[in-house]
Amino acid sequence: MTGDISSLLWYLGAMLFASMFAYIGNHERSVFKRKCYIVLSFLVIILFCGCRFFVGNDYANYTYAFQSYKNNGYSAVYEPGFDFLYYVFADNPCGYIYVFFIATIVTYYFIFKTLVREDCLSWGIYFTFALGFLICANDQIRQCTAISIFIYSIKFIERGEFIKYLCCVLGACLFHYSAIVLIGAYFIRFIKFSRFVWGVLIISAYFLYLIGFWQEYVVRLMLVIPHYGELAVSSMRFLQAAETSSGLGILFKVCLALSIVITYNKLQKPLLAKIYLCGSFLGIVSVGFLLLERVSFYMLYTNILVFPLLIKNRKVKIISTAVITVSFLYYVLQFYFGLEKHGAVPYRTIFFENVVMPNYSLGND
Q1: What backbone phi and psi angles, to 5 degrees, belong to 349?
Q2: Is the peptide bond before 346 cis (omega within 30 degrees of 0)?
Q3: Residue by residue, what is the 3-state secondary structure of 242-273?
Q4: What is the DSSP string of 199-247?
Q5: 215, 205 contact by CB (below 8 A)
Q6: Is 52 helix (H, G, I), strand (E, B) or coil?
Q7: d(C-alpha 226, C-alpha 222), whole Å
Q8: pLDDT tens-digit readout, 123-169
Q9: Which of 175, 206, 311, 346 could cross-link with 320 by S-S, CB 3.0 to 4.6 Å?
Q10: Residue 48, phi then psi, degrees to nearest 5
């Protein structure tokens, strides 16, 4: 994939306007005006993502799934939330567009509810773009809807309200069955690691990744699991550091995780840091193991909450400034050198395409 400057400008423009409206709204004294600016910010992202066309590697697969449901009355992968949307719009020739648009609304409804609750909407939007959640959500539509519900439900983990949290997890399972593993995430609240231990875990995981340790031993471990282990291993894609953008993406994630480790004792919400660091550790371990990597995404994308809360702490201004600068540069470099892997480019919209009879050959490979 080559770089795409025009697509970068689309993404930066959406980021700018969505963040700007959120920032203005945050400084408005009038409750009504504040809500209006939040809605404007929400609409920017909804229109930008909901009106995309063949943006995301899995966009074509989701379109095929819709056509399959339309023709046969069922989809290859049954997940009640999406199948219900397929059912509602099955008779519409552009029904898949409505399905993706509503999925986008649901996803960002929970994201915005959480960011507004934590009083970090403007920076939350920035990191939603810069740290990859938005790009991932345009690709892995079902799972990112589930991820957004999980991010919203973290408040129940903080309060120790397991039943309410379980209800959210079951709701997330309507969109992606993998969310069932999140039941275990509730018990992260009991972890009492010091920042030294977290640092050792992250750094050790990274060096073991570099020498190929995880590729060998995770396979052995997973093969112990009857039936599922063989299925999981058969679907794995093994990537050497040199083949993953020279390991730049992994190193970037390690540096982000270490910035949280360094400031661990100064964060207002240590639970969020714990969840994010667990996701970072699992994300390093699971490079090349697609199914495990998908599990890590649930916790890893809490970064859209963790880093805005880091920025609000004025005692760590140097680190927060470094995170903002490096994340922005990395975001731009991904587009300039074509490094991102979710099919975010070229950015196209439904307004300039034949949505009734789409040309699948123009989709992302």
Answers
A1: -120, 160
A2: yes
A3: HHCHHHHHHHHHHHHHHHHHHCHHHCCCHHHH
A4: HHHHHHHHHHHHTTHHHHHHHHHHHTSTTHHHHHHHT-----GGGTGGG
A5: no
A6: strand
A7: 9
A8: 999 999 999 999 999 999 999 999 999 999 999 999 999 999 999 99
A9: 311
A10: -65, -45
Which tokens sit at 143?
Answer: 């799972």
Please list the ranges in the chain whose pLDDT falls under 50.
1, 238-246, 363-365
Question: What was the pLDDT predicted at 64?
Answer: 87
pLDDT of the residue at 74 = 74
pTM of the model: 0.91
Distances (CA, A) of 311 to 5, 46, 117, 285: 29, 25, 16, 28
* b/e per residue 19-48 (b: at least 16 CB within 10 A): bbbbbbbbeeeeeeebeebbebbbebbbeb
| 247-279 pLDDT, tens digit each | 788 999 999 999 999 999 888 889 999 999 999
Residue 230, Ramachandran bin (φ over 0: left; ψ between -120 and 50: alpha; else beta)? alpha
- The C-alpha atoms of residue 277 and residue 290 are separated, in whole angstroms, by 19
Alpha-carbon gap, residue 82 to 72, rounded angstroms: 15
Task: Report the distance separating Cα 236 and Cα 244, nearest Å.
Answer: 15
User: How many whole angstroms separate alpha carbon 154 and alpha carbon 157?
Assistant: 5
Produce one character per residue of 179-202: b if its CB has 16 or more CB atoms within 10 Å, e if not: beebeebbebeeeeeebeebbebb
Report the Cα 343 to chain-centroid distance in Å. 14
Helix ranges, the chain (H): 5-26, 31-50, 59-72, 80-89, 95-117, 121-130, 133-139, 141-159, 162-173, 195-210, 213-223, 228-234, 248-262, 270-285, 290-300, 303-312, 317-336
Contacts (Cβ under 8 Å, ≥6 apart) of 141: 56, 58, 62, 100, 103
Residue 223 sits at the vertex; the CA angle it makes with 220 and 225, to the nearest 5 degrees, is: 130
| Residues 6+ away with beta carbon under 8 Å from 209 | 241, 250, 284, 285, 287
Neighbours of 208 (CB within 10 A): 15
Q: How far apart are CA 234 and CA 211, in angstroms?
A: 22
d(CA 188, CA 210): 27
Closest CA to 25 of 123, 121, 127, 105: 121
